[in-house]
Design goal:
128 residues; mainly alpha; Arc Repressor Mutant, subunit A; two-stranded antiparallel ribbon; 5 helices; 2 strands
Length: 128
């Protein structure tokens, strides 16, 4: 697994680790079922605190990118299905909230589009 951390980057190390593993999983370079290094092993390899890598793994698990199976370790999950399911759930929650706020459908769509533009722009900056 090709992973490194730029200690001079404004992006926190845990986010660099999270983003890179997610990118490798989404691209297929880390196939479904591939076992990741233990938290301690990866932390040592990257020169990070174990808590930093643990946070990256927790966020990857929350995003459905990895699954942790106790003694079997942390494995790459079937990302596509989980990612789409989680995105749909988040969108449904946003829609219910927008309706409760009384905004029009066009206003809700514009707000969502603006938020997506910002989020994808931030992600592009982190990769640069």
């Amino acid at each position: 697994m090709q992973l490194s951390v730029d200690h001079d980057s404004p992006v926190p190390p845990y986010e660099q680790v999270r983003a890179r593993i997610a990118e490798l999983a989404h691209s297929g370079e880390l196939p479904v079922g591939r076992k990741l290094p233990t938290v301690r092993a990866l932390a040592e390899e990257l020169g990070l605190a174990a808590n930093t890598v643990a946070r990256a793994y927790r966020e990857l698990e929350a995003d459905g990118v990895v699954e942790t199976h106790g003694r079997r370790g942390t494995l790459i999950a079937a990302v596509g299905d989980t990612s789409h399911r989680l995105a749909a759930a988040a969108a449904a929650e946003y829609a219910r909230h927008a309706v409760r706020l009384g905004v029009t459908e066009q206003e809700a769509l514009a707000a969502a589009a603006g938020a997506l533009t910002v989020a994808y722009g931030e992600r592009a900056q982190q990769r640069a």
